[in-house]
Write a sequence for this structure.
């Protein structure tokens, strides 16, 4: 429906009484002239003049109504703050629309005030949790020093594995806080992908040993433009997930195909109905609910990070057979960022 047609329907609905009055008045005039035996040419002239005057009044009134209607529609449909100056029409003598303007101005003020309060509240949360994450690093470091003095190798290994989990959860919280300003934190350079992968495997070597999971790492070479810290975070999330859901005696394989890094495990696998939602914030899936350790944030943050870096991530899985995670690195130059 055209804008004019939509306005016309609204106009006729609002002016139905006026339209009926116009028809009734025309009929009364015609009846009076007919009963008064006025000459036909004079009667026709009077009726024509009546219709012309009413037509001019209609055109003027409809034009004014159309502008007002479109103006209020635009105000209604605007997202965020309403700009009452845009497409403003001269309604200074219309008390109703003056009141509308006053209401909108008040709503704008309240909206701006609430937005500012929300920004301040969010900033306070970010500052608090940033401080908490940085403060918690001190006792973590102290624990690492204390564990070096534990004489029993088996106990020391288990405690170090649990300490690594604490560090990972802490890092997850910190990266979530930083995600809003990730672009400002990026340090894009050309890196050898195999070196970043090997560094993460070295970091989680203790978990491989403790969980008795075999590693098969194919030799590969690929230079990628990325941020080493953020890509390492993504690799860490994928490796910890693979280790968490792979039973002792299982295997994790890593290889490169074209420009896609593939990390495959022989773990529990994922239900088909869970796969489309795995990168959704807070979604843990059936495996996460069983393990009772999943936060539903790891893959969500990984997807966000990969998207910001200009990379891609997806996965394939079959329940009971394992999962394959694919990290794709399109060929790019630094000028493209």
């Amino acid at each position: 429906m055209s804008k004019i047609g939509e306005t016309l329907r609204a106009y006729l609905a609002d002016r139905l009484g006026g339209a009926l009055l116009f028809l009734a008045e025309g009929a009364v005039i015609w009846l009076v002239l007919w009963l008064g035996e006025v000459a036909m040419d004079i009667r026709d002239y009077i009726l024509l003049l009546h219709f012309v005057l009413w037509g001019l009044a209609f055109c003027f009134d409809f034009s004014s109504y159309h502008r007002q209607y479109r103006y209020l529609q635009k105000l209604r449909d605007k997202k965020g703050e309403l700009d009452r100056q845009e497409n403003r029409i001269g309604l200074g003598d219309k008390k109703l629309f003056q009141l509308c303007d006053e209401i909108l101005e008040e709503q704008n003020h309240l909206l701006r005030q609430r937005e500012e309060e929300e920004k301040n509240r969010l900033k306070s949360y970010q500052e608090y949790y940033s401080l908490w994450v940085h403060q918690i690093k001190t006792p973590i470091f102290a624990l690492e020093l204390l564990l070096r003095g534990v004489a029993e190798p088996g106990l020391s290994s288990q405690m170090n594995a649990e300490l690594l989990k604490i560090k990972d959860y802490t890092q997850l919280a910190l990266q979530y806080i930083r995600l809003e300003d990730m672009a400002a934190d990026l340090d894009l350079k050309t890196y050898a992908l195999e070196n970043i992968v090997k560094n993460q495997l070295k970091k989680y070597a203790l978990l491989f040993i403790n969980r008795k999971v075999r590693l098969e790492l194919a030799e590969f070479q690929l230079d990628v433009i990325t941020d080493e810290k953020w890509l390492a975070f993504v690799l860490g999330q994928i490796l910890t997930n693979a280790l968490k859901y792979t039973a002792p005696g299982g295997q994790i394989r890593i290889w490169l195909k074209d420009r896609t890094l593939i990390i495959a495990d022989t773990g529990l696998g994922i239900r088909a109905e869970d796969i489309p939602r795995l990168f959704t914030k807070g979604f843990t899936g059936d495996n996460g609910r069983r393990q009772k350790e999943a936060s539903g944030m790891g893959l969500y943050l990984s997807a966000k990070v990969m998207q910001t870096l200009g990379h891609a991530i997806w996965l394939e899985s079959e329940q009971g057979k394992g999962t394959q995670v694919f990290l794709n690195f399109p060929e790019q130059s630094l000028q493209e960022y």
User: Anything to note?
Assistant: The longest strand covers residues 251-257.
